[in-house]
Write a structure and sequence with these properties.
Layout lengths: L1 E4 L9 H5 L4 E4 L3 E4 L8 H10 L5 E4 L1 E2 L4 E2 L1
Antiparallel strand pairs: 1-4, 2-3, 5-6
Protein name: Ferredoxin
Keywords: 3Fe-4S, Electron transport, Iron, Iron-sulfur, Metal-binding, Transport
Pfam families: Fer4_13
Length: 71
């Protein structure tokens, strides 16, 4: 699964960091750090984090890396 965060849209509310702290971390008060490629086992937490983002800055894309297909 691939994650992309629009850092121009992100307002550092940190809801994602609360819901998936091993994927999203707030660095300081405003900078969001995140893992762009996440194992499918973390899918539910990442989807909850994306849904909780007040400005909808998180895009989640499932990628089949063996075939190079996006779903």
């Amino acid at each position: 699964m691939r994650i992309n965060v629009d850092l121009n849209r992100c307002q550092a509310y940190a809801q994602c960091a609360f819901l998936a702290p091993d994927v999203f971390q707030l660095h300081g008060e405003e900078a969001l750090l995140y893992q762009p490629n996440v194992d499918e086992a973390r899918r539910e937490d990442v989807l909850r984090a994306a849904a909780a983002c007040p400005v909808q800055a998180i895009l989640v894309d499932r990628v089949d890396l063996e075939r190079g297909e996006r779903r």
